[in-house]
Amino acid sequence: MAKRGRPNWLDATKKGQILTIVSLGGTRAMAARFVGCTPRTIRNEAQRDPEFAAALAKAADAPELTYLQSIRKAALESRYWRAAAWALERTRPQRYAPRRPDTITFAQMRRFINELVAIVTEEVPARYRKRILQRLTTATGVLQPPADCENPSTG
Questions:
Q1: Total structural domains in the chain?
Q2: Domain end position, chosen among 47, 72, 91
Q3: Closest CA to 110 of 140, 148, 86, 67
Q4: What is the H or E stretch that residue 64 is in?
Q5: Rounded Cα distance, 123 and 13, in Å
Q6: Of 50, 74, 91, which residue constitutes the final position of a domain?
Q7: What is the pLDDT of residues 6-29, one digit of tens each?
Q8: 16 and 34: one domain?
Q9: How does pLDDT run across 77-89, given as a tens digit for each residue?
Q10: 41 with 78, same domain?
Q11: 34 lies in which domain range?
């Protein structure tokens, strides 16, 4: 029995062209224009064809990997030290990225709250202190260091 419904508009050649464009850093919209379809057609084909969807996801990551390899290669040469600095700023921003003067770090916020707890403990009458300290403890528990903050006690 023959397959019913619309035939797949994207043949193997067009899928290959789309994957090439995306792997070079092009957008799906650009690839769609190139092969003569719409981005929706690409999205629908990816939903119907898991193999194409996986290849499309892999192609989308390819430019990033190429750029990272270029930065790493440049960073190995001391005259291109800025490439190494750039990579550190972006991969370890808590340690290497410049901060705006009006921002505070996780560690600074934690120290501030600890100081606030000490002030409340010393200055607030006992009958109010317990509730205030419970609320500050809850507030402190909400603070979590960013995933890339290796040592929350520094910074």
A1: 2
A2: 91
A3: 140
A4: helix 50-75
A5: 76
A6: 91
A7: 666 799 999 999 999 999 999 999
A8: yes
A9: 888 888 888 888 8
A10: yes
A11: 12-91
